[in-house]
Amino acid sequence: MSATAFAFFDTSIGTCGIAWSERGVTVLQLPEASAALCRARMRRRQAQARETSTPPPPIAQAIDAIQRLLRGEKVDLRFVALDMTAQPEFHRRVYEAARAIPPGKVETYGELATRLGEPGEARAVGQALGRNPYAVIVPCHRVLATGGRLGGFSAPGGVATKGRLLAIERPTGVTTPLF
């Protein structure tokens, strides 16, 4: 997954980074403990890409939509093109299926696996989502463990970040405290 450029932008939850190629977004970096840490991680992950403060129009539109989503607006990010060329086929299928979960809704890992035609593969779905380089564009935070429990989250801040994202979206069906 070779990005050509990346940029940083402010959101209601902190500074995020976004990288892209000619095919679409390659990485969405959620906030770290500080803006400086977010910048350092993105620069390490995208060492061959150039940093810019003026992303092309499709990326600028994606940034605007992400900012609105993180402010609590019900925004569908499926219009954002993703460059999944470096992703294994199963991960691509999981990411596309997760993108179909609208804001304010949740599914379990098992439900997502069943919808993919892979019943019994909840753990594999969880592993794919744990490697999701496109969080919140691929809304892995909307995928829960059985019984409405949060389950895991591999982005900076872990399950606390997942709870925060869900608290912004206010879905039903979550049994674990969100903060």
What does this molecule look like?
With 179 residues, the protein is an alpha/beta fold. It folds into 2 domains: 5-70, Double Stranded RNA Binding Domain, CATH 3.30.160; 89-169, Winged helix-like DNA-binding domain superfamily/Winged helix DNA-binding domain (Arc Repressor Mutant, subunit A). The protein has helices at 35-45, 57-70, 89-99, 109-115, 122-130, 158-169; strands spanning 5-11, 14-20, 25-29, 50-51, 107-108, 143-144. A 4-stranded mixed sheet has the order 3-2-1-4, with helices on both faces. Strands 5-6 form a two-stranded parallel ribbon. α4 packs across α5. The longest helix has 14 residues, at 57-70. The mean pLDDT is 90.
Give short descriptive properties of this protein:
single chain; 179 residues; alpha/beta; Double Stranded RNA Binding Domain; Arc Repressor Mutant, subunit A; 2 domains; 4-stranded mixed beta sheet; two-stranded parallel ribbon
